[in-house]
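Catalogue entry: protein
Contents: sequence, fold tokens
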Amino acid sequence: MAAARESLLDAAGAALARRPWPAVRMVEVAAAAGVSRQTLYNEFGGKDGLARALVRRAADGYLAGVERALAGGGDWERLTAVAEWTAAAAQQDALVRALLTGCWSERLPAPSRGPAPVPAQRRPEAPLPSPPELVRIVRDRAVAALSGPGTAPAATVELARSCELVVRLALSCVTAPPGEGGIAGLIRTAASRTAL
């Protein structure tokens, strides 16, 4: 069933790229995925469940990219990679942009923050993070990746501030792309003023 689920999410994402979410029809999504409409309903429970899963996949994909960005290089290089990934992911995917900024247009599936009804055979998904929660998640992952064993508490607090500054700079670049020097130039400027 995992392959059917991914096919359905791919088909829903493709449909969303062509038209607003309210105009996306479940029968078309099922047909594009090559499964029955009943399979779609069994997997997601309905259009709201499909929307929630689509947004969840966008959030998980963004956070997986953050992990990849934190995987190698020096501290500021990794933070720069996180900032660049954030801006690129938001530019490429309207759902990621909405997750990061909280700006949901009528074209996109509305995020459901509370518990969602799910078919009996599916586990409920965790609630979607709000933009401030995403900032915290990315900041905390960066701190975990950059701090070593035995890092002093005061140093961890400073590191957390630096990481949050970079995440917030990245978010500002999502809504107002930087000029000359790009994101890396902004991060270099922040680095020159921050002890990391």
